[in-house]
């Protein structure tokens, strides 16, 4: 009997691959194998427009004796699924045949709660549910390569930082790292940071999470990277806590993420002081996926109405009114997803921006550019070795790219293409890359026609007709406060004024950009610090003064290494400063501080800081971590008894500290040396530590002391060193490798 195709409402898919994955899951749950039988492309666009997935026994059997195994022989089975691409880009099931003309193998099937393609599995069938492992899986040798790469990067610059997180079985759950340049760049460009979780949601082989910023040349900054085992709230919270610690506890003004409830909770937990925004184009891009069927009959009317409501509403009240009218017009009041994004409107709708500046990080063009950038790092089959090798190549390339942009900005100015006073003003201030964008707005002002709509004292409202975009925009200008706003939200999105505001300023007799609209982050002086008394007078604590000097030294190294001339100037300045300090040391009596370790001191620093990282002894074992140039042979005595606890020194060590974890660490921990750490940190948990050492976050500049109220047991001793990388720094990870390869 010929199988009849089944039809009716079914799921929608974002791509042909997603549809095939769905059919494969169905095949696995029933007990057969699936293949892509056929697919067809459009002659006009070249894109796939339909596809047919079928049982491997689909097709007529051959007339001669088959060579293939009987289980794969053709039986003219008709079981299949036909999918087609809709005009909106989604894929729908056009026909589905579930009946097979041969025996299937239910013993090999597995339940799939997401499979709703008429899967009527027997309730008596006992099937084992496989738990998804909550740890990273690496190939043979990947872990050793990862740690060796971290050691190498730390040797190149001692301000390199990394942290790892282990699960209860001592398997690697997450690893995070950030290089020295990124830590320095963040001090200048901490206003907007994007946490990109795309590669976690896409289930890549390497679930890669970058922290992304943008510098004064409109170039992307990698402000930290991580491999994570899952997209849970605890994982993202751990990641953000360690990233925040690496950045000296300085939270960004704006944290950008995709719209996600898990990320929403994690950001609120770790950086509540940051303004958490969702990428506008990520929210709008989800509309066809979430509302495809409901808006299909309305053509492009719904999307036009949504764009008008979201992008053209000048005030919160106007947005609320337009949103209500849109929902009522298209009868969308029962759409749960639409209700959800409305509840989150303060985090993505421009009318609720309240002066927040996103520095171009939420535009469509920047989103596409970021995707192209990260495609260089991670593809579905990229190995960890390939990733790290490519990461180092691209990192060096981006440093050279920034140095080249710095040189070009200092060497020549872009040519002025108009006599506008705004262009003459900003060509002196903006970097070349930013000025070219700004000059496009200056030139576009000639295509704008402003008309005053109303005036209330110093407040004026204009309607600006933009003939280039063929749209009208509303601009408000307050002469007394020099405040302006435009319904195009260019300043909020990009960080510089739009053509509509400039034409209003021009007819209002204002011939220079108000200072409030000149962001330092886009200027040639973006990385120059305004030295103040507050910057100089840090604290009465010598440890904090030391910490501050080290941070400034890294900045000097970054700037002083740009050219031979800056290098010579930096060396001379350092030598002069050292001579002055030596002269002052001879005339000022040194005072021993109670919270600073020195020869024979037995005090405890009163300043607590907590960090959680535990490592099993089978995971990391250091051989001969001995070298030269140990720092001050100091130790602290806690309020409890610390018996026979010695140091595992690192190169250029200055201050020792002890740490308590925020979560319980399992197993015995040993130390992975920070080859150039300024302080050596012992980690302990609330259950007491026996023979537990340290997994150092590399080059922590200052980590005050914190002790758990339990007693600490003896720990071994070794000296740290200053050699580039001693032969004994090989890390044994065989047992961890075997664990990660077990599944």
From TrEMBL:
Region (Disordered): 60-80, 710-743
Domain of life of the native organism: Eukaryota
GO biological process, one term: regulation of DNA-templated transcription
A GO cellular component annotation in the UniProt record: nucleus
Pfam families the record matches: FAR1, MULE, SWIM
Main location: nucleus
Domain SWIM-type per the UniProt entry, residue ranges: 473-509
PROSITE patterns in the record: ZF_SWIM
Compartments, record wording: Nucleus
Molecular function per GO: zinc ion binding
Keyword Glycoprotein set for record: no
Keywords: Metal-binding, Nucleus, Zinc, Zinc-finger
PANTHER family, per the entry: PROTEIN FAR1-RELATED SEQUENCE 1, PROTEIN FAR1-RELATED SEQUENCE 10-RELATED
Record family assignment: Belongs to the FHY3/FAR1 family.
Function in brief: Putative transcription activator involved in regulating light control of development.
Protein name: Protein FAR1-RELATED SEQUENCE
Organism annotation: Vigna radiata var. radiata (Mung bean)
Lineage of producing organism: Eukaryota, Viridiplantae, Streptophyta, Embryophyta, Tracheophyta
């Amino acid at each position: 009997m010929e199988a009849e195709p089944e039809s009716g409402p079914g799921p929608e898919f974002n791509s042909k691959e997603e549809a095939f994955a769905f059919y494969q899951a169905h095949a696995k749950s029933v007990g057969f194998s699936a293949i892509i039988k056929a697919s067809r492309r459009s002659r006009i666009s070249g894109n796939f427009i339909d596809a047919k997935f079928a049982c491997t026994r689909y097709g007529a059997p051959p007339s001669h004796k088959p060579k293939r195994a009987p289980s794969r022989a053709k039986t003219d089975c008709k079981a299949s699924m036909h999918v087609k691409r809709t005009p909106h880009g989604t894929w729908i099931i056009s026909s589905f045949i579930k009946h097979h003309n041969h025996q299937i193998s239910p013993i090999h099937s597995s339940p799939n709660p997401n499979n709703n393609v008429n899967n009527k599995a027997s309730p008596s069938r006992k099937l084992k549910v496989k738990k998804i492992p909550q740890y990273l899986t690496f190939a043979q040798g990947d872990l050793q390569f990862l740690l060796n790469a971290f050691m190498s990067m730390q040797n190149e610059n001692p301000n390199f930082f990394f942290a790892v997180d282990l699960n209860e079985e001592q398997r690697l759950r997450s690893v995070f790292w950030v290089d020295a340049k990124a830590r320095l760049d963040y001090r200048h460009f901490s206003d907007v940071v994007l946490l990109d979780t795309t590669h976690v949601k896409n289930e890549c082989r390497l679930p890669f999470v970058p922290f992304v910023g943008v510098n004064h040349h409109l170039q992307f900054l990698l402000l930290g990277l991580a491999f994570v085992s899952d997209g849970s709230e605890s994982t993202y919270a751990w990641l953000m806590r360690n990233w925040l610690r690496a950045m000296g506890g300085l939270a960004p003004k704006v944290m950008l993420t995709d719209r996600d409830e898990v990320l929403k909770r994690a950001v609120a937990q770790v950086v509540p002081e940051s303004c958490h925004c969702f990428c506008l184009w990520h929210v709008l891009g989800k509309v066809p996926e979430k509302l495809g069927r409901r808006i299909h009959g309305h053509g492009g009317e719904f999307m036009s109405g949504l764009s008008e409501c979201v992008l053209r509403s000048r005030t919160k009240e106007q947005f609320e009114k337009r949103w209500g009218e849109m929902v009522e017009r298209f009868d969308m009041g029962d759409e749960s997803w639409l209700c959800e994004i409305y509840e989150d409107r303060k985090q993505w709708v421009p009318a609720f921006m309240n002066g927040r500046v996103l520095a171009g990080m939420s535009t469509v063009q920047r989103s596409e550019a970021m995707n192209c950038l990260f495609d260089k790092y991670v593809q579905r089959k990229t190995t960890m070795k390939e990733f790290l090798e490519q990461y180092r190549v691209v990192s060096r390339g981006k440093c050279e790219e920034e140095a080249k942009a710095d040189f070009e900005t200092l060497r020549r100015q872009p040519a002025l293409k108009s006599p506008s006073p705004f262009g003459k003003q900003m060509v002196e201030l903006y970097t070349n890359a930013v000025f070219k964008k700004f000059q496009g707005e200056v030139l576009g002002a000639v295509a704008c026609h402003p008309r005053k709509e109303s005036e209330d004292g110093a407040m004026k409202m204009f309607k600006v007709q933009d003939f280039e975009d063929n749209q009208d925009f509303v601009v408000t200008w307050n002469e007394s406060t020099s405040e302006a706003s435009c319904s195009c939200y260019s300043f909020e999105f990009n960080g510089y004024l739009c053509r509509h505001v400039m034409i209003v300023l021009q007819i209002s007799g204002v011939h220079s950009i108000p200072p409030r609209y000149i962001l330092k982050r886009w200027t040639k002086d973006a990385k120059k610090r305004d030295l103040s008394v507050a910057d100089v007078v840090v604290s009465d604590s010598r440890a904090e003064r030391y910490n501050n000097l080290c941070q400034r030294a890294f900045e000097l190294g970054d700037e002083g290494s740009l050219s031979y001339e800056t290098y010579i100037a930096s060396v001379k300045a350092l030598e002069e400063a050292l001579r002055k300090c030596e002269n002052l040391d001879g005339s000022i009596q040194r005072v021993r501080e109670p919270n600073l370790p020195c020869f024979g001191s037995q005090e405890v620093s009163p300043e607590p800081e907590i960090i959680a990282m535990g490592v099993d002894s089978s995971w990391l074992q250091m051989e001969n971590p001995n070298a030269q140039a140990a720092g001050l042979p100091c130790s602290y005595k806690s309020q409890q008894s610390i018996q026979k606890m010695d140091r595992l020194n690192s190169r250029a060590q200055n201050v020792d500290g002890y740490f308590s974890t925020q979560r319980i660490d399992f197993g015995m921990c040993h130390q992975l040396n920070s080859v150039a750490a300024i302080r050596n940190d012992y980690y302990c948990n609330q259950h007491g530590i026996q023979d537990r050492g340290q997994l150092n976050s590399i080059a922590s500049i200052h980590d005050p002391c914190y002790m758990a109220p339990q007693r600490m047991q003896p720990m071994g001793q070794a000296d740290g060193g200053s050699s580039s990388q001693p032969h004994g720094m090989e890390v044994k990870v065989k047992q961890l490798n075997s664990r990660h390869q077990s599944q």
